[in-house]
Amino acid sequence: MIQIAICDDKKSTTGDLEDLLLHYKEEKALDIHVLYFSLPSALYQYMTEETVDIVFMDLDFGYENEDGILWATRIHEDFPHSLVLILTAYETRYKEGYIAKVFRFMTKPFTKDELYENLNDCLDELNLYISVILFRRGKTHKIPIQDILYFAASTNGSELKTFETTYFLDESLLQWEKKNSPNFFFRCHKKYLVNLNAIEQLKDHSILLSNGEKIPVSRRKWTSLKSAFMKFDISMKGRKE
User: Fold this and answer.
1) What average pLDDT does the segment 26-42 reach?
2) Dist CA 86 CA 58 (whole Å)
3) Which of 48, 150, 213, 234 could be joined to 194 by an S-S link, Cβ 3.0–4.6 Å?
């Protein structure tokens, strides 16, 4: 489950943000739980007992000791794995935000595209796209991303191939492409959506996977695949360091 906290004392902001987060949750098929706090001190107290992955923090709460930047600094120091996004209608305090090491600034009023882009970046940073959620026969299944080789198109939907199992799914390959982060998955062919983490080698317009299997790459996707794989490899090495 991904815990997201909205810390803002304005109902208009929390309402708009809640609606967009619910749409994002449905589109990505993610297990997201949204929490609400009107003061940063209350949020911080909650975080001493429970994990919060992403925080949307307002700047001004009208109280001397309830300053968004100050509490964002404290959250970063005490909970370094939580990402804070500052919500503000002003740009005058951006420099303070960089010092506080906030993850992003979002200028009010923000757009759906801006929010989605920032959420995608947050999830990639937190590595929370570690599982793909499947709904089968009334049950929810989480498939760890490190177990996934690729999605493949099929006559009645698609297939999810792991090292040990093949899952037959109702969703189309296009639907899975939209649901999963492009930082982890790449549409290398009209029939395949490959997990970049499963690639062992790129050669002769084909992909050698870590299980020894080969899948084709369309000619028009070859250059962009090499670029995506290089970025992914650099990114993963950076996280390990």
Assistant:
1) 89
2) 6
3) 150
